[in-house]
Design the sequence.
């Protein structure tokens, strides 16, 4: 499916600090938004930050078509995101969207969503989308500590929420792949959607391959343009180097050779 | 309203704004944003003899006022271009110019010969300046003798407008420009990227998989402008100037320094509308200054 891309000065309708490192940027417009699908992302221009030459890509975290707004979940990592964190209601931010492909629909309802850290971002939109297909997934989210947890009540609206924290301050202790949901003999899921640090996604892909379960991951390679012309964000696939910004960011782990 | 038309080696461009190879795909990727047919021309992504998968990721590093890339000429080869891409893009109502690259002299000749047969491609841009391939590329463009040799070899088989894109990674740009002119080029394009590198201090490793890469963006504009000016004074061939052009003002600087047209490159990544904004900005400039033709600006820089 081909989506029409837009470039527009969107309006910041709200900017909510979630904790020390994460914030939610809510964007709206006078113009109706195009159709957006879970897995797609937006390329955000950062004004007022001279070291930030390129746009910054962020997954679409949540969409509210009735109010014509969408949200980006952003982790403060460097100068660019620090500047974006300062955005105030009413500010204009130049955005190219929606970009990239989308998660595919599951063929059966036994679905597990796995996210780690800021990688939980596209999974809320996905859970929302699945709900409309009457799919109620289990949602496993990994955080560093209890203090760093965010948006959990939002996720729990769409499925059964499972939590891990690195230090055990909430949920089960350890990494997401250590969670009991993966330790069962008869793995109950037919499809896994995963987003987070690459090491985590590879570990989940391995478990999926072991149980012969379909697994889709959303990759986060460095990119310059975000719409397919610079060829900087490529990843090796069964068809050679493919662009994460156009053929991705969502890939089936079989195509990546992650077994 | 003043005319934006420019004549470059007998080719008429509706305006002097074109897009740099490797920054504009095949033009189609921009169709959601504006009609690429409104541009003076499109320099499409480099084409080589065979399919090339390019260099390993990471291939890009953001730098102050620009970026490094080491894509390494990823493309599906000339036969794929002629068969699959050319029929798709040939309806664009503007000049489509193919950037031709190779690892050997024979490869350049092979690709040029095949592109010569495509009716809607009025020119090629010989890329003897890519810094990101192990053999060929920039190696041809950094010595006057080899730059001349590859230009001559392609000239023999290519019958339309032959443009040659020069590397800035040389001691004397005018010496290379003269050699390429002697080899039979019709137009000079300059500059390609500057060789550079970036280091990840946390990992104490190079950012790029290839260690070094090509620097582009506004950081290189003063270097590019200087080289266009030097070559304009030294060689009689028309010049297409590029290097860090972000806006109308930058484009006019290149015209004044001696470029007959310009290419917008890295700016396409950060603002996909950059090139079309420059087309409109140049028209406004002519009107504001009461100038009849954009050609009146080319190379008129006063230095005394």
Sequence:
């Amino acid at each position: 499916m081909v989506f029409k891309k837009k470039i527009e000065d969107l309006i910041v309708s709200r900017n909510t600090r979630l904790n020390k490192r994460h914030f939610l940027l809510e964007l709206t417009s006078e113009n109706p938004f195009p159709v957006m699908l879970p897995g797609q992302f937006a390329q955000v221009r950062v004004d007022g930050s001279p070291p930030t030459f390129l746009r910054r890509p962020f997954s679409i975290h949540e969409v509210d078509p009735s109010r014509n707004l969408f949200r980006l979940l952003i982790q403060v990592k460097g100068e660019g995101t620090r500047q974006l964190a300062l955005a105030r209601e009413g500010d204009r931010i130049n955005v190219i969207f929606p970009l990239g492909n989308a998660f595919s629909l599951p063929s059966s309802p036994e679905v597990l969503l796995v996210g780690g850290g800021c990688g939980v971002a596209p999974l809320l939109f996905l859970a929302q989308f699945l709900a409309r297909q009457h799919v109620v997934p289990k949602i496993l989210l990994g955080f560093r500590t209890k203090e760093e947890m965010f948006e959990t009540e939002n996720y729990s609206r769409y499925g059964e929420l499972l939590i891990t924290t690195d230090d055990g301050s909430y949920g089960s202790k350890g990494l997401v792949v250590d969670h009991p949901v993966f330790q069962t003999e008869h793995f109950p899921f037919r499809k896994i959607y995963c987003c987070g640090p690459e090491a985590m996604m590879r570990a989940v892909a391995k478990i999926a391959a072991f149980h012969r379960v379909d697994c889709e991951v959303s990759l986060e390679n460095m990119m310059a343009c975000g719409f397919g012309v610079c060829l900087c964000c490529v990843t090796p696939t069964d068809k050679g180097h493919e662009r994460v910004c156009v053929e991705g960011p969502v890939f089936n782990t079989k195509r990546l050779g992650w077994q | 309203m003043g005319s934006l038309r420019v004549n470059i080696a007998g080719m008429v461009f509706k305006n002097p704004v074109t897009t740099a190879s490797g920054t504009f795909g095949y033009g189609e990727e921009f169709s959601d944003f504006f009609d690429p047919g409104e541009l003076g021309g499109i320099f499409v992504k480099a084409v080589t003899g065979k399919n090339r998968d390019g260099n390993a990721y990471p291939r890009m590093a953001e730098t102050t006022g620009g970026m490094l890339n080491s894509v390494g000429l990823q493309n599906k080869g000339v036969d794929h271009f002629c068969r699959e891409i050319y029929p798709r893009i040939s309806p664009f109502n503007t000049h489509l110019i193919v950037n031709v690259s190779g690892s050997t002299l024979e490869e350049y000749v092979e690709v040029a010969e095949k592109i010569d047969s495509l009716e809607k491609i009025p020119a090629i841009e010989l890329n003897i300046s890519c810094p990101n391939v192990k053999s060929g590329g920039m190696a041809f463009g950094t010595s006057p003798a080899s730059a001349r040799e590859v230009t001559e070899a392609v000239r023999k088989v290519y019958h339309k407008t032959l443009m040659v894109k020069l590397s800035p990674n040389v001691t004397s740009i005018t010496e290379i420009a003269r050699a390429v002119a002697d080899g039979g080029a019709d137009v000079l394009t300059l500059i390609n990227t500057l060789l550079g590198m970036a280091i990840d201090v946390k990992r104490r490793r190079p950012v790029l998989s290839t260690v070094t890469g090509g620097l582009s963006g506004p950081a290189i504009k003063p270097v590019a402008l200087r080289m266009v000016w030097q070559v304009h004074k030294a060689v009689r061939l028309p010049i297409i100037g590029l290097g860090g052009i972000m806006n109308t003002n930058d484009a006019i600087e290149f015209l004044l320094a001696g470029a007959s047209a310009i290419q917008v490159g890295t700016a396409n990544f950060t603002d996909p509308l950059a090139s079309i904004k420059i087309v409109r900005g140049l028209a406004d400039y002519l009107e504001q200054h009461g100038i009849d033709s954009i050609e009146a600006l080319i190379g008129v820089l006063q230095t005394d």
About this structure: The radius of gyration of chain B is 18 Å.
